[in-house]
What does this fold into?
Amino acid sequence: MAVYILGIESSCDDTSAAVLRDGVLLSNVTASQAVHEAYGGVVPELASRAHQQNIVPVVDAALKQAGIEREQLSAIAFTRGPGLLGSLLVGVSFAKGLAASLGIPMIDVNHLHGHVLAHFIHTENDDYVSPEFPFLCLLVSGGNSQIILVKSYKDMEIIGQTIDDAAGEAIDKCSKVMGLGYPGGPIIDKLARQGNPEAFTFSKPNIAGYDYSFSGLKTSFLYNLRDWIKDDPDFIEHHKEDLAASLEKTIVDILMKKLRLAAKDLKIRQVAVAGGVSANTGLRNAFHDYARRYGWKIFIPRFSYTTDNAAMIAITGYFKFLDKDFCPMSAPAYSRVAEDRV
It folds into this structure.
């Protein structure tokens, strides 16, 4: 009998549902929330309300696109955390209600775990090759910058992470300072393609081991900009492409230097990238460059699997289903993870 997994993702401001059959993706539907753009960031209360409006039609659309009835589902996988608690509660509550009504098991998924396992999403007849264990994964997003040693589907160790701001957060904040809008990632990426990455120099932290720090870069960017604007009030408008390119290059250099160190020390040449910032053109180009220079075999996710999506939750749930790793109805959502393992 075929195994059908419904995946539900609601950790931040995207409501997403996906259906897998025996590990093969049949549908992946996402409803985004444009309401946050006016506020320059995600407003938790608005996000949770939008999830309540979106969750039923999104799940219904995912089931219809997959061509199945809900009674055919074998289990429901859902993001339990980390994320915005109000947003998570919508997805968790819906998953519990649907699982109880159908009498099928629930599978809780760590959101970060899902991002890593996005590299194992397959559609019918695709030729995508997944990484082999062990491999290193650079997980970069608005809330996380981590180097993860992936030993198996369920054994992942964080060997390096940011001690303050995440890379995506630094990009968004610098974009906001420049008055470019939110979210900053796509805007900075587009401008950087037209700029000179060597035009400006910003602070790079000297942190021991594999850990990251981006607060110094953010401060350096802000102070330099303040000084330049004193001499030229229209400095940002005159140099926004070069500023974006130089900012992007600095962040990518910081990320890749530590990743290269970890790969060298651990003697691992299979290296992946995941998370929202993995959509950045400069970072993707750097991965190809390092692959040529150091003999890495690299794995870069499709653009549709870089941001939050239910396909990554469903594939993680599928692996846990095969292990009969279910969770009780009493399992609560959680906003943060304190452990050093994903």
Observations:
- Residues 24 and 126 are 10 Å apart (CA to CA).
- The chain is about 40% helix and 20% strand.
- The domain at 4-127+305-322 is CATH 3.30.420.40 (Nucleotidyltransferase; domain 5).
- The longest strand covers residues 24-31.
